[in-house]
Amino acid sequence: MDHSKFRLAPSRRHAITAALLGVASALGAPVAAAQSVPAVAVIPYPASVRVDSSVHFVLGPRAVIALSAPASSELRALGGVASEILASTLGAKGTISAQRAGAGARSAIALVLAPSDSSAGLESYRFDVASSGITITAPRTAGLFYGLQTLRSLVDAERESLDATGGAARPTSVTLPGIHIADAPRFGYRGLHLDVGRHFFDVAFVKRWIDLMSRYKYNTLHWHLTEDQGWRIEIKKYPRLTEVGSCRKESPAGRNQRIYVGDGVPHCGFYTQAQIRDVVAYAKTKHITIIPEIEMPGHSKAVLAAYPELGCTPGPFEVWTRWGVDVDIVCPSEKTFEFEQNVLSEVIALFPGTYIHVGGDEAPKVRWQQSELAQSVIKREGLKDEHELQSYFIRRIEKFLTSKGRRLIGWDEILEGGLAPQATVMSWRGISGGIAAARQNHDVIMAPGAFTYFDHTEGDVRFEPLNIGGYVPMDVVYSYDPVPSDSLTPEQAKHVIGAQAQHWSEYIATPQQMEYIAYPRALAMSEVLWTPQATRNWDSFRQRLLPSVLALDALGVRNRYPDVHGLERGRTVGDTLSLELSTAIPQSEIRYTLDGSDPSRQSLLYTAPLKVPLQSDSLLVTARAFLGDRRMSPARQATFKKR
Predict the structure, then answer these.
(1) DSSP 559-594
(2) Beta strands 289-296 and 355-359: pairing type?
(3) Which residues on neighbouring strands pair with residue 499, listed in sequence order?
C-alpha cells in the first residue's frame, strides 16, 4: 500500500508523539490503569508504561545492534529480527556489533539477556529508551523477542504519524521519547487455531500465519490437522490416510442446503513429515509452539474411508463431502486403539511441545449404541453408557500420551462420562465446561463460540462474504475476560491458563478469506490474552488500532476494515429517528445515505448524532467507514419503521 496517497488533516492525525505524550508527564509518571488515552501505540498494550517527554532518541535505518553475548546463536538470531524490523519499517538493515552490549561501544539497540531477572515471569521484558539508545532486557529470549515486537509497533506508529503529515518520501528515521515499559503476559497460553481439515492451506500460508501471530505476541498455534473432510498429515505406517483420506471428491455448493448439491471440484492436500518438521522449526524461531489436533473418536470419516475396518459398520465410507457432524465414528476396538497409538507415536515425533489435542468433540453415539463390539466393551469395563465409553476411550489415549511424556487436550465434550485424570479442557460450548473443569482442578483453555469463533461474521451478512453464520464483532471479542471470576475461587481461576481464537474453514477456502476473518479481530484477542484486565480499555484500543491496520496493509494482509456501529438492527420509531453511529477506528469518516443507495466518499458525512424526520412509513439507512481514499469498510444497513 502506498501510504503517501493517504493524508489525514493535522487535527485528526494519529501521531502518538503529540497526541499521546501529552498524557504522560515529563516526569515519567506511570500511566493509569484502564486509561482511555494510551501512552504508546502498542498492541497488545503493555502491563506498565511511563513516558519521559524530555528525552528523545532518533532511530535510523543503519543502526548498530549490540548483544549481551555476541557469540550466542540465539541472541544473534534476535539481532537479525531487530535488523529485519529496521529494514521493513525504515528501509535499511541494522548492523550487529561484535562488541558486547554495555562494553563501551555505542549502539542504537541493545538486547540484554538477564536470566536472574525473572521475577515478573519467564516471558517478561523491560523496554527503555534513553537519549543514547534503546535497551531491551529479559530473562529469556522469548521476552527479548516480544520486546522487539513492541519496538516494531512503536516504529510503525511513529512512521505512520510522520507519513500522515505530508511528503511522499518514506521516513528513514523516527524519534522516540523516553519510553519505559515493564511488561509480561497475563496468560501463559495465547493461541490462534487454524483449521486445515475442511480446506487445505499450504506451507507458505501457514508460515505467514505464524509470522502474523508473532507480531502480536501469540505463543501457540493450534493446528487442526484431521477432519471428516480431509486428513492432512503424512503417517508413514498408514499411507492410505493421505493416499485416500487427504482428498474429497467435492465440497458443498453454497450454504444451508435442504437438498445437497456439490460443487464437483475435488479438494486435496496434505503435509509431508518433512514439511511438518520445517513448519515446527520455523514456528520455534518466532517463539510459537504448535499443538497438533488429531480428531478421535468422531470427525473420523477420512480415517474410515482409508481404513474401513476401524468402523462399527462395514461401510462403505468416503471422505465426507458435507459440512457438519456425521454419525460414523471409529469403533472402540483394540485395532482402533492400536491405530490411534501408532498415529500418535508419529505425531509425537514431529511435534516437541507438551500438548497433543485429540478432539473428542461431536461424536454421535448411534453407531456405538448399535454395535455389538461397543456394547461388549461397555459391559466388560463396567461402564454405564456410551458417554462413559467415550470417557474410557479418552482415558486410554491419555494414558498412552502420559507414557510418552505428553499431555492431552480435548474439547469440552471430554467432560461427559468423566474427565481423564490429567486432561486439559478446551471449552467451546460456552464457558460452563471450563468452569466445571477448573472446579475439578484441571487446566482450562477458554474458546467459547460467542467470543472466539472468528469464522462467525462480524458484520451485516448482506454485505459480507459467505460464512457459517453467528455474530462475533471485534468489540465483543475485546470485551471478553477468559477468567469467570464470579464462578471460580482464586485457586480454581489459576487453572484458566489462557484462551484462543478459532478459525474454522468450512466457508474459508483461500488465504485471503482466512486473513479477512482473522484481522483485525486477532489484535483485539491478543490484548485480551496479554494485557492485565484492569489495564484494558476499548477506547484506548480504538485509538491504537489504525497504525496496526496500516501495517497489515503494508504486508498485503487482506484485513477487514472495521465497519459502522449503530445499524446492527432496525427498530420502530416515532416521527423522528435519533441515531448515533461510530466505528472502531475513530480516524475514519462515516458516510451515509437515506435512500438505500451504497454510500460513497461523496455521500453525507456523519459529524454528530442524527435526527431525521420520517417522511414515509420507513427509512433505510446505509453507512460505510472510509479512511481517506485508501480504505473502505463493508456497508451496514438498517430499516427504521414509523410507529
Answers:
(1) -----EES-SS-EEE-SEEEE--EESSTTSEEEEES
(2) parallel
(3) 190, 446
CATH class of 564-642: mainly beta
The domain spans of the chain are 3-183, 189-530, 564-642
- Between CA 444 and CA 500 the distance in angstroms is 11
pTM above 0.90, yes or no: yes
Residue 507 contacts residue 466 (beta carbons within 8 Å): yes
3-class secondary-structure state, position 111: strand
- pLDDT tops 60 at residue 633: yes
- Identify the CA nearest to 100 among candidates 121, 79, 128: 79
Q: Which of 227, 271, 374 is CA-nearest to residue 313?
A: 374
Dist. CA 327–CA 207, nearest whole Å: 34
pLDDT tens digits along 34-89: 567 899 999 999 999 999 999 999 998 789 999 999 999 999 999 999 999 999 98
- Within 10 angstroms of residue 101's Cβ, the number of other Cβ atoms is 23
Burial of 211 (0-12, 13-18, 19+ CB in 10 A): middle
Q: Which residue has the cell 505464524?
A: 210
DSSP three-state, residue 109: strand
Instruction: Please report, in angstroms and rounded to a whole number, the separation of the first and last CA atoms in the chain.
Output: 47
Residue 3 has pLDDT above 50, yes or no: no
CATH architecture of 189-530: Alpha-Beta Barrel (3.20)
Q: Which three cell numbers stand for residue 609?
A: 448524532
Question: Can you read off the three cell numbers belonging to residue 351?
Answer: 511435534
**338 phi and psi, to 5 degrees?**
-60, -45
Q: By CB neighbour count within 10 A (0-12 exposed, 13-18 middle, 19+ buried), where does 364 fall?
A: middle
How are the residues of the chain apportioned to helix, strand and coil, as percentages rounded to the nearest 5? 30, 25, 45
Q: Tens digit of pLDDT for each residue in 534-574?
A: 999 999 999 999 999 999 999 999 999 999 999 999 999 99
Task: Report whether CATH 3.30.379.10 matches the domain 3-183.
Answer: yes
* Residue in the block written with cell 540465539: 74
- Separation between Cα atoms, residue 377 and residue 290, nearest integer Å: 34
pLDDT tops 60 at residue 213: yes
Contact at 8 Å (CB) between 16 and 157?
yes
Q: For residues 125 and 148, what is the distance between their CA atoms, to the nearest angstrom?
A: 10
Kind of pairing, strands 174-183 and 48-59?
antiparallel
